[in-house]
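Q: I'm building a small set of examples for a reading group on sequence design. Run inverse folding on the following structure and report the sequence directly after it, with nothing in between.
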């Protein structure tokens, strides 16, 4: 997802020329989704310190309370990633 941001700089008193700046930001997701799919059961247990079923159960319980909303300026971290980083 590419986001364009335009910023207008107001001129100093007596100057009539506006300055316009454009910023381009590229938002990409991290390696977490691909990493978790590639892990077998033993590696997953080592990475998460629990099996996938326990992780999913815990995620279902705490997921709604650790979910944040996306804003126009940034994408929020998914509850799965947030929980995995915490563990």
């Amino acid at each position: 997802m590419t986001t364009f941001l335009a910023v207008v700089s107001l001129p100093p008193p007596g100057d009539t020329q506006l300055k316009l700046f454009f910023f381009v930001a590229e938002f990409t997701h991290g390696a977490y989704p691909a990493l978790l799919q590639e892990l077998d059961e033993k590696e997953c247990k080592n990475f998460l310190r629990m099996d996938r079923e326990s992780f999913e159960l815990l995620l279902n319980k705490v997921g709604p309370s650790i979910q944040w909303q996306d804003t126009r300026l940034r994408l929020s971290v998914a509850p799965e990633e947030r929980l995995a980083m915490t563990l």
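Helices lie at 32-38, 41-48, 52-66, 79-86.
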